[in-house]
């Protein structure tokens, strides 16, 4: 009985799967195209999603009043920060990383 090591496990399958994707794509940029997102917008998105999760957990744990309140307040504050981080590059044009040229 042979056990495959972590480095060789699944590599041939992954290559075959990726080659099938590359063969069937009409535009090669579809596989490698990325969108550059400023870090603050990404942090804002994560904070909004985390805040929403905290508020949902706080609502689900309504029988534990103190924990529920802490989760709800923490979620609202986290979502508020996420909103600021998400919108800040558009409001404050002098923020580092915001391209000001057209």
Number of helices: 4
Structural class: mainly alpha
| Largest sheet properties | none
Helical coverage, percent range: 55-70%
Mean pLDDT metric: 77
Oligomer: single chain
Low-confidence stretches: none
The beta-strand count equals 0
Order of helices and strands: HHHH
Amino-to-carboxy terminus distance: 63 Å
Number of separate domains? 1
Percent of sequence in beta strands: under 5%
Rg over CA atoms: 22 Å
Shape: flat
Indicate the topology:
Elements: H1 11-24, H2 29-32, H3 39-60, H4 65-91
State the gist of this model:
Helices cover 66% and strands 0% of the residues. It has 102 residues and is mainly alpha-helical. The longest helix is centred in the last third of the chain and has 27 residues, at 65-91.
Question: Can you describe this structure?
Answer:
The chain has 102 residues and is mostly helical. The chain has one domain. Helix content is 66%, strand content 0%. It has helices at 11-24, 29-32, 39-60, 65-91. Helix 3 (39-60) packs antiparallel against helix 4 (65-91). The radius of gyration is 22 Å and the shape is flat.
Which descriptors would you attach to this protein?
102 residues, 66% helix, single chain, mainly alpha, flat, 4 helices
């Amino acid at each position: 009985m042979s056990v495959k090591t972590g480095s060789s496990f699944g590599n041939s399958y992954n290559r075959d799967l990726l080659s099938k994707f590359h063969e069937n794509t009409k535009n090669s940029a579809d596989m490698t195209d990325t969108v550059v997102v400023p870090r603050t917008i990404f942090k804002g998105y994560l904070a909004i999603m985390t805040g929403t999760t905290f508020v949902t957990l706080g609502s689900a744990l309504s029988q534990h009043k103190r924990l529920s309140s802490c989760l709800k307040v923490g979620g609202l504050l986290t979502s508020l920060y996420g909103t600021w981080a998400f919108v800040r590059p558009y409001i404050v044009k002098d923020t580092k990383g915001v391209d000001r040229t057209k």
